[in-house]
Each structure stands twice: as C-alpha cells, then as structure tokens.
Amino acid sequence: MTPTEDPQELDRADPAGHIAAAAEAYRNWGRWGEDDVVGTLNFIDDAKRRTAAGLVQDGLVVSLAQSFDMDGPQKGWRRRTNPVHTMLDTGTDAERGAQGFPHGIGGADDVIAMPLQCSTQWDGLGHIFDRGFAWNGRRAGDVVTSDGDLVTGIEHTADRLVSRGVLLDLGAFLRPETGEIEDGYAITAAELDACIAAQGPTSGVGRGDIVLVRTGRLARARREGWGDYAGGPSAGLSFTTAGWLHRSEIAAIATDTWGFEVRPNEFDAAFQPLHQVVIPNMGLTVGEMWDLDRLADACRERGRWEFLLTAATIPITGAVGSPVNPLAIL
C-alpha cells in the first residue's frame, strides 16, 4: 500500500494497513543516530534560534497556555483529572502565629497534583508506541516502565523548544464567517498549503519550525462550555497529512484541540492513528490544548504570522509529557 494525501482514498476498514504504510514511508529511525532521544527537535539548531530571535519587532508577549485549575476541561477519562491545588501554609496561619517562624515573618506554600497532560502540554516521544515499538526502533517495554521513561524522558527536551513559530489559522481560513471549524472535519495537506498561501510569505513552513494550527475548537468550548472538549469530537489534522508533516521537516506541531488529529478518526475502528505514525516513527513532538485565539488576533492585526516561540518543557525525569506555558513573542 502506498500512502495517500487524499482522505477519499482511505479504506475506512483498514487502519492497520494505512498505519503500517505511513510508518514505513515516513520513519526517521536512525536519522540522527541510534542513540537519539529527541527526534525532530534535532531540526532546531543555533542558527534557527538566532533567526527566530530576529523576528521580535514589537516586544509583545502572548501566553498560549490554558489555565491549570479545577475549572479545566478534564472529566476523568483515562484517569485524567483537572489540577488539584492545595495550600500548605496560608496568610491565616501567619496572622495567628501558627507557623513557628521568628520575628514576625510568615509565608505561604502550596502543592499541586495533576496529570501532566491535563491542560496545555507537549507529548513526549515515550507517550505513544507503534505495535510494541517506541521512537527510534526501541522496544516499548525497554523504554517506559513503572519507573518512567528511562530513555526518551521529557527532561531531554528541556532546552530544545525555542524556535521560529508559525501560526496557521485554519479556522479563519476555512470558516471565515465564524473562525471555527466544525467537529469531525479532517484538515488536509492541500488545505494547510492553501492556508499558507492565503496568509502570505510570513507563514511559510520549513525545517526547524514549530507549527501552530488553530481550528477554533477552544473558542467554541469557552462559549458553550467544556462538554467533551478533552476527548470528544473535534476538527483536526487528517491522517493523510503525515507526508506533509514529514517532508516539511518541522520540529514540532501544536493545536488548540485535545487530540491534534481529527476526532472521530477517519477509520471505522481506530484510535489516534496519526499519533501512531508521527510520534514513535517520525519522532515528532506534538502539543495539544494550546490557546491560540489571542495570538491569531495579534498576527492578523500585524499581517505577519511568524514569531519567536519559547515553549520549554518542565524537566520531570522520566515523564512522557509536560505541562507548558508557551510564549509567542512578536
């Protein structure tokens, strides 16, 4: 089977065949050596970062993170809950002299408990496996155990995710009247290219870029309520964009949706087939649940869609994902 970029050519009854064909065609195993642990983040080099830094013109900083609190989108699916924030020391304790500190000093301390992928986050390379194998051809059981990701833990990416960011506002491009693509719509490679052409030269995509795709799904959730935002139907990338993601040589991609790819998926019985190709085979870092609405407004006002993007992971040893507060600097 040869991979296709036309969703109409997908055999909905054969996800395994399409996944195997795309995995073989777009596999980057060994591309950066047998010991590599960061995959396509290797496309970001010092020169790329210098170029990205030169994109700053106004000094405007836009946070692309959702809130991390009890009012988040999680409903408990796969044991994913919203963050639980607990105070350990408070101002009340200080007023009452209950903290045991000398000369009137007081303080506050707190703790948070949360799944690492409950809000704006990056998927690490140990997050998804393909038929028992992890990134770079390693056996999944040799990579992630009860002790965590022993090989490709998110800590290896802590200083990597600074590069040129590019926003592709597919929501505004495909649905200019609302800015929001309907759930279940599969964005094709041709539509990604058409959006780039429509937005102009500053949205061109190339090696080492971090691409952000706005669908408008988060805007709708804010207006109508979370509903099934974290795990339910959504617009997203078609399975057939795997070739586009591979040949563009981007370092990472993030969307304003829970799943990055279209939900429901494009096969009769499948779960996140594009993840299965791009993470363990391509080595692509994927971000989800990013807030791209304010950034879209800022880019549209300026007529430019590129910016310095810093989106560092928290170096949690052995983690397969990380919360993040991405910053676009225009």
From TrEMBL:
Domain of life assignment: Bacteria
GO biological process: L-tryptophan catabolic process to kynurenine
GO MF: arylformamidase activity
Name under which the protein is recorded: Cyclase
